Amino acid sequence: xxxxxxxxxxxxxxxxxxxxxxxxxxxxxxxxxxxxxxxxxxxxxxxxxxxxxxxxxxxxxxxxxxxxxxxxxxxxxxxxxxxxxxxxxxxxxxxxxxxxxxxxxxxxxxxxxxxxxxxxxxxxxxxxxxxxxxxxxxxxxxxxxxxxxxxxxxxxxxxxxxxxxxxxxxxxxxxxxxxxxxxxxxxxxxxxxxxxxxxxxxxxxxxxxxxxxxxxxxxxxxxxxxxxxxxxxxxxxxxxxxxxxxxxxxxxxxxxxxxxxxxxxxxxxxxxxxxxxxxxxxxxxxxxxxxxxxxxxxxxxxxxxxxxxxxxxxxxxxxxxxxxxxxxxxxxxxxxxxxxxxxxxxxxxxxxxxxxxxxxxxxxxxxxxxxxxxxxxxxxxxxxxxxxxxxxxxxxxxxxxxxxxxxxxxxxxxxxxxxxxxxxxxxxxxxxxxxxxxxxxxxxxxxxxxxxxxxxxxxxxxxxxxxxxxxxxxxxxxxxxxxxxxxxxxxxxxxxxxxxxxxxxxxxxxxxxxxxxxxxxxxxxxxxxxxxxxxxxxxxxxxxxxxxxxxxxxxxxxxxxxxxxxxxxxxxxxxxxxxxxxxxxxxxxxxxxxxxxxxxxxxxxxxxxxxxxxxxxxxxxxxxxxxxxxxxxxxxxxxxxxxxxxxxxxxxxxxxxxxxxxxxxxxxxxxxxxxxx
Length: 677
Prior knowledge:
By secondary structure, the chain is of the alpha/beta class. About 45% of the residues lie in helices and about 10% in strands. It is built from 25 helices and 18 strands. The chain has a six-stranded parallel sheet, with helices on both faces. Strands 1-2-3-7-6 form a five-stranded parallel sheet, with helices on both faces. The longest helix has about 30 residues, at about 5-35. The radius of gyration is 28 Å and the shape is elongated. It starts with a helix and ends with a helix.
């Protein structure tokens, strides 16, 4: 045996010892919790060890270092792989005590990774495939930022660990296809190719040719033995030089080291059991107690983290010098791209503020009917000059009005733009936007029809969970879209979205409210926002400008027919015109009312008790009017109230005829109100 062979054997032994630290922390944590997925961390420990030891650029002392490589665990059920790595490399966010409390309440070591800023947990994963789409967003954001500040400052990779389940989910196809189209060469997917899912072998349901699949997307593809350290290292070296996104299919054994459960579904989603763990310890020559990492191995792991930190600190000094010379862009980067609106400071901000006020002033002079999607376009045409706003649409740019004449396309040959053609990929678009937002504080917005929010909901829910400033421009917001018919007419979608915690759902009535809702969405640093917009033109509701953002109250009075009133009419969006007509015509019969515009339920619910009482408790009868599902409104109207809307699917016809069909017209509403009185 030659010296080279001896060296490889020695190195292999060292890597194996480091990898076993991950394996046994994972095994012991899952066993103590009596819940979890030990098989994936056991199988991917070797790959993760080589990655963190020899390739990953990171900084345990400053987990938010902007030029760190991003490590995304799309196969989030294997969360103990991530927590073990964070603890071993010296992140303060995860302690040994945290690992012992795996899956316990308020512990950072949750069942699936949950995003916490500055911890090394880059995104919330678990719903399979979501992490892949997030990783595409991270990689895309890196390319955009690199183009803005230069590759001497921004030049890192995004690594995503995905399993068989991630690649089965449809979102993976959408996201991987987009990444290949954009040639995101900084994206490296590590496929935990263990051929096992919860039900058993993956061949029960899948016979994909993974190589052909990735090649068809425009990816590079390498297949390796995921337990051969030399092959792992060679593949990762090649990945550093690729001109395309690359998938490394790591053929691994789930539950590696378990005599009776390795390679089987029994190691996937359940603890191994005390007796089996004893056998694993024996087989892998691990002579240590549960949660005990030998001091020499912990020192070696911590030295990996310390070495990475030193490299990062050198870069950070250089970064801070250059960032101070970048003016407005440098300021946004230094403040993690967070902004206040309307922007009144410095030159670019002042220009935007003046343009917003001029557009509102011009509108109030003409008072022409205008679709709120068109109003949104006017706002976007002004604010797209912000260096951190990244727009896009799922192949509906002209319908969503999300792309203006001032936008510049982002494409594989030029990432200097600010607009993404996502193609017909709503599901991936929203997952990618989460990654863009998480990367460095870009503000992504993306458009589709409100009805297709059903495709987007998993990603929207995760954005709300992670408190990300992501904005969804959802147009064609009711039966008002007309002839496209019930497949495209949203009914229950607003209620569905309003039921998501920490999501603001705006439905503005005219240009003034649309501008106000956009402003509030941009001000909200801790929640995503939906802006639901009309296809059809609507008459102005607000005919006077106000220095105060009235929509920020969630609900406010816009019309009153007398001081002494009997009825409160609450409405949103295009139906506010209808509510106003009802108010005026009731007054001709000496029945007096007030009209409340409620563009955002969530903001209204946050107001103080006195304000809510002022809006809701002035009259015994409260009426809601909205061309959508009615039950959600009953929390405001009460059991004695009236709710006008639609609790069935729509119709294919001109929109005014559909409104009449469902009784959403002045005569029908007044008749029922008079009967109630």
